[in-house]
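Lab notebook, bench 4. The sequencing result for the construct came back, and we need a structural model before the next group meeting so we can plan mutations. Quick request posted to the team channel:

Model the 3D structure of this chain.
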Amino acid sequence: MTITTCVFDAYGTLFDVNAAAREVAAEPGQQVFASVWQEVAAHWRAKQLQYTWIRALTGHHTDFWRVTQDGLDWALEKTGQSDPELRERLLGLYFTLDAYPEVPDMLATLKAQGLNTAILSNGSPDMLQGAVDSADLAALLDAVISVESVGIFKPDASVYKLVGERFGCDKDQVLFVSSNGWDATSARAYGFRVLWVNRAGEPLDRLPDPPDRTAADLTHVPAIAREF
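Done. Here's the predicted structure in token form:
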């Protein structure tokens, strides 16, 4: 069936989750942090994801902003960073994460092809709106969908169901795009067509329902959408 709707994960897919730590590391007076920023960024992202999975499994939901703070606190303690101003600076920048360079043109091309475009994310609505506005993407997106409307994080099926409820489309009319292997396979299991954006050149996750396509970035999403 023809793709009518392209849906994107936000963090790591459209927005660079390492951008906040990288920016702070480049600021004057941050020589100590600059020596550990990559470790902080990696731990922060890993814990952020782990906490969403655990909360989804245990039923202890909170919004993504709380999870983001908790993940950062763990990462800073792990790397011996105890400056409260550093913490606040990093958290503030998470609302204005850089979009990957190809994102605006890619979304504009999808819109020119007459496709619906949307974000489907664990992010809380205010976080997502901040990132979308900062990257000037609002006019290129038909919807920004947060898990907060169902109160559970991905990969719960109720999250993916939100796309059909919003656009009135069948599952196989959706091309879902994510940089997270677990998200890509979960969306494929739900019934979406899926593109996994493998920027880091990682191995395919050993999980059922592999993605339909793999790409190194988002440049060719419009062409891939036409292939189905």
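The first strand starts at residue 5 and ends at 8.
Will bring this to the meeting.
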